[in-house]
Amino acid sequence: MSAPYDLARPIAISCGEPAGVGPELMEAAWQATRAQLPLLWVGDPRHLPATLPHRIVADPQEALDICPKALPVLPLAFEGSAARGVADPANAAGVIDAIACAVDLVQRGAASALCTLPIHKKALKDGADFAYPGHTEYLAALAGVSRVVMMLACDALRVVPATIHIPLSAVPAAFTPAVLEETVRITQSALRTQWGLAHPRIAIAGLNPHAGEGGAMGTQEQDWMFASCAKLRAEGIEVTDPLPPDTMFHSRARAAYDVAVCAYHDQALIPIKTLDFDRGVNVTLGLPFIRTSPDHGTAFDIAGKGIARPDSVIAALNMAARMARAAQS
């Protein structure tokens, strides 16, 4: 083996939208990680930058020897062009196939984890009638699971929004005891099996200001959240009662928990994006394999200009590796 990797299998990387920043970020990410991480990129090699050395592989295990010298590529033929900044719907089927191929690699044990580069949902719908709202739902369908949970993570904080892309006005109806409890159970299980935490400490953010302040600022905490938290503790899960959201994200408070489960999207994402905007990682919990992704989109407006930052892709690869090590130990 040409590099002292401590992973026995490569990290599979689905190429994402070829007209976005994914291909150029892959070059910077490979340069930054090739001595530490075995990578395997799945996609059409025509879409990679000409300055990125790459080698075609037939067997994923070849990546371990090749990666220090060139990016290992499991090739797929796409039908469309790769003009930066302009999505070609003719590539939609290829992008979807790359995701499915990379998932197959992790599911059959040929890859240690999956890192997905950003897709463009409209291009997939226009070009291949993509039937899923996004990456996560497609991954859940491929894995045959009914519910997954989104985590955003960086070195300083992990957050899980129990409800995601819905209007704030819809949150009180959607945020139910069943949703909170299932989110916590999935989160606790993933932290144990994929992060190596024997007893994860889970903080619960109240829905209302000051966690309702005894019912004066909202009643959900008193009506059911305290009871749900007690139920989860009875199951052996280390979970707090609802905490005031405005006081649970400073440094001293964060030291008391391993993850914060929040009621809605912005309650979770504003703290982590404030703490580490460039290196946040999207992690999907509840899948039977490890999946990470950079916390940004295709960025068509800057694609090909050489100014896109690779921090989040590098962080996503390193986090996938850390989780894979924990899972195999």
From TrEMBL:
It is found in: Cytoplasm. Catalyzes the NAD(P)-dependent oxidation of 4-(phosphooxy)-L-threonine (HTP) into 2-amino-3-oxo-4-(phosphooxy)butyric acid which spontaneously decarboxylates to form 3-amino-2-oxopropyl phosphate (AHAP). Pathway: Cofactor biosynthesis; pyridoxine 5'-phosphate biosynthesis; pyridoxine 5'-phosphate from D-erythrose 4-phosphate: step 4/5. Its cofactor is Zn(2+); Mg(2+); Co(2+). It comes from the Bacteria. GO terms for molecular function: 4-hydroxythreonine-4-phosphate dehydrogenase activity; cobalt ion binding; magnesium ion binding; NAD binding; zinc ion binding. Homodimer. Its main location: cytoplasm. One of its GO terms (cellular component) is cytoplasm. The active site is located at the dimer interface. It catalyses: 4-(phosphooxy)-L-threonine + NAD(+) = 3-amino-2-oxopropyl phosphate + CO2 + NADH. Its EC number is 1.1.1.262. This is 4-hydroxythreonine-4-phosphate dehydrogenase.
